[in-house]
Amino acid sequence: MSPNWVIIFLGGLLSATLSFSPALFHPAFILFSYLATLPLFLIGLGLGLYSLYGAALIASILVFVVEGALAGSEFFVLSALGPIFLVNRALLNRKQKGKVIWYPSTYLLRDLTLASAVVTVIALGVYLYFSQGEDAQIFVNNFLKVFDPEGHLTDAKPILYMLFPFLPGFFAFSWSVMMIINGTLAQGLLVRFHHNLRTSPTLSNLCAPDKLLLVLGLTLLLSLFGVGTLGLIGRNFTLIFLFPFFLIGLGMIHNWLHKTSFATLGLTVFYLCLLILFWPIFIVILIGALKPWIEKINLVS
Description:
Layout: H1 3-24, H2 30-33, H3 38-47, H4 49-67, H5 69-90, E1 93-96, E2 99-102, H6 105-131, H7 136-147, H8 157-162, H9 167-192, H10 212-225, H11 229-258, H12 263-276, H13 280-289, H14 291-300
Antiparallel strand pairs: 1-2
Helix pairs in contact: 1-3, 1-4, 3-4, 3-5, 3-9, 4-5, 5-6, 6-9, 6-11, 9-11, 10-11, 11-13
């Protein structure tokens, strides 16, 4: 067995183990399950797509065997195909005058937004199938019976009741966040040990996908004035389409603070404010949405 296949197998095993660790070992291990895609990103960004295919397949089969068909299918769609799609895009490149030009961060943001929209559609389908006109309490109880038969999330019921109309969007939003966190962690580790296949994407110079601001406006209108299913679609897609502008806003704030003499302190205080308070998130989103006009003002001045 070649060294690469050893790494591929161990990566798939680790990914699957992290995924089903709360059910197999202890409910407190649920935090580790959020890192299930990290080994797959490490293999994909360090060894390439074909190695990632092998590790993702091994991990999916193991989850299927240990937790059953539903969990195995969920893992394959969300935790295997997600990294495969994003790594595929991240490793695209072309040569120009002898220099390798990697797939830009802006295009990665566009593709992540597209993938998040697909996850939202899937989550909405599951939501509508299981809710079938039921109120929040009945739906959440039925949902937890299917997706948490061990009862690990019982204490989260009050929060789930409150977030009931936004569950599909929050699910897709959390999926996007974990894809970014695990992909960034993997790339950082690979760069640290000089095993990365590509240079690291950055937040700087991020731009919104074409027409995204218009689409966001339409989903906002649906969320405010839509009735029934239309309102549900509007609320959940609004949450997803706000996220790219949040990342763009973060990139602009990074750029501004890096031009000062207190960049490290400024970024530390800024992220502490984001963690402690809630409202600064909306300011960051607004900055991201207004980026084209802010840049025009800077050019004029």
